[in-house]
Amino acid sequence: MTPIRKLLIANRGEIACRIIKTARARGVATVAVYSDADENALYARMADEAVHIGAPEPAHSYLNIEAVIAAAKNTGADAVHPGYGFLSERADFAKACADAGLIFVGPPATAIAAMGDKAIAKRRMIEAGVSCVPGYQGDDQSDAVFIKEAEKLGFPVMVKASAGGGGRGMRIVQDKAGIADAIASARKEAKSAFADDRLLIECAVLGARHVEIQVFADAHGNCIHLGERDCSLQRRNQKVIEEAPSPVITPEKREQMGAAAVKAAQAVGYVGAGTVEFLYDPARDEFYFLEMNTRLQVEHPVTEMVTGFDLVAWQLDVAEGKKLLVDQTGVHFDGWAMEARLYAEDPAQGFMPYSGKIRLLDFPDGVGVRVDGGVEEGDTVTTFYDPMIAKVIAHGTTRDQARLKLTTVLKKTVLLGFAHNRDFLVSLLEDEAFDKGEADTGYIERNLERLSKRNAPGGAAAIALAGAALVDLPFGDQLTGWHSRGSCGFPLHLVTTGQQIIKADIRLDGAKITATNDGEEAAIEVLSKSETTIHYRHEGRIGVARFVRNHYHLEIETDGDWERYTDFTLAPASENAGGEDVVKAPMAGLVTSVRVGPGDPVSKGTVVATVEAMKMEHQLKSPRDGIVAEVLAKEGEQVVIRAKLVALKAEA
């Protein structure tokens, strides 16, 4: 056995913070690596040492094997933990660590290679007798072959990248008309994300559940499973809420799936933590191998909560050459756990990712949940990486108890500075189908409009609250002629993130604020106000609103509802430029394609350009039928949020 003394973490954000905590508890020194964009990141501040490895773009930093190995050697680290994402499933990285005399906290390079290519892995699983989804995973990658195989399988089908994971390079195709575009799009995204554009194609199992098994193996031939996680609530093949155990898996089925997962791991000589993912068909009570993630999963905390095991500590034990702490008979499950991923993205605006400074971040105390975060108040979320803010995990004796605890803590969580998915997570947790354990992998997409609908913070009192946030105490200091015994007012012109226009009148009378909008009136009594908090009374009920003001932007959160307003009451006209004649960048990012030129005719919904931000490609479409007047951006150009990309000729 070789004890680990100093551990370099070849990752960033939340998972780097998570690994540092376990290493610190074991007395192991830690080394962080950071890009230009992460110089002041939380994980870099937490580590014992931090080493700069390059520019913000992952290819020049977190994917730069030579830079990471050099950082480990120069700091005297004797081991490297890859976390998840980036280099975690790169066989060449595991080999480079071994060649440099470093302990790689993960499986051997041969196992990563065997499972890292989905097509090869699927062929090996078929040979090992593990049930797989029917499909094509051959070497001939021509479009003609894929189209032919899709027709043989029957629609709908799933086109998937052979390399990588995280939902990148995956497209579901409903009919033959969409197959060519899906292949081209999946290839492009796979090439960008994994530098590998090979694909495979499978039958799309409708109504399926995404159920994965956590496996663990040591170098002494022992391999066990730690039960299942249900990750069926997904959006664009990316997990949103995970839980352990699954509400649809019986103890008997768990043992069958666990045995299959162990067989899959043993077939490739696996060592360390891994996850074998299955599609489970409730109608047939059958499961099919999807892929194996040869690393720690984002959702590993739910398994830790129900088993009581620290999986990162187990990873370090196995990497040091120790045997597993328990055999299969020593694995027991206690209660239920659920995890929600809090992201800087707006579900009401097509899950548009956001970047910016975190102006207010507050997770409630005393609720009895775990928060695995990678940022603090005052930190900045950039456009270069995954926009995760934190994972919130609740444990309960029953599923309903875990669900209610997670719902409560999310409602009490305050995140201000940019749009986020907190309200969407609450909607999912309170949804009747999820409450009953009936939501499958397609549930979010089928119900997206309803689930992503945002409620005004404060309900009927929302506009009055906005008025209270926009004036200083004592009310009316900036208003001519106001005095403490009189009343005054001002007009209010706000636009929500969903482009709802609010034109209201605000009347101030002592501590009372009344808002009149479209003939309807609502009033609040302000009990107290600080720079970020308003205590108020509305129709006999006392509430608390949190808010931040930044130039012409106002964010308000109360009782689990959030909104960001742009205040056009005093804003210059340029703030509202653009109209329906200009296609603008919805976020800062890289222009990956410009598909039109001056003089080109376009129809409403035509894709005119694409922008890549936070590891996802976003298609920008023409707002109406018309003629392109001017193209204002170039392919390969980095643009800021709301940058004008394509202008249409004015309508006659």
TrEMBL record:
Residues 3-449 form the Biotin carboxylation domain. Residues 574-649 form the Lipoyl-binding domain. This is Acetyl/propionyl/methylcrotonyl-CoA carboxylase subunit alpha. PANTHER family: CARBOXYLASE:PYRUVATE/ACETYL-COA/PROPIONYL-COA CARBOXYLASE (PTHR18866), METHYLCROTONOYL-COA CARBOXYLASE SUBUNIT ALPHA, MITOCHONDRIAL-RELATED (PTHR18866:SF33). Residues 122-320 form the ATP-grasp domain. InterPro entries: ATP-grasp (IPR011761), BC-like_N (IPR005481), Biotin_BS (IPR001882), Biotin_carboxylase_complex (IPR050856), Biotin_carboxylation_dom (IPR011764), Biotin_COase_C (IPR005482), Biotin_lipoyl (IPR000089), CPAse_ATP-bd (IPR005479). Keywords: ATP-binding, Biotin, Ligase, Nucleotide-binding. Transmembrane segments: none annotated. It comes from the Bacteria. The lineage of its organism: Bacteria, Pseudomonadati, Pseudomonadota, Alphaproteobacteria, Parvularculales. Its cofactor is biotin. Signal peptide: none annotated.
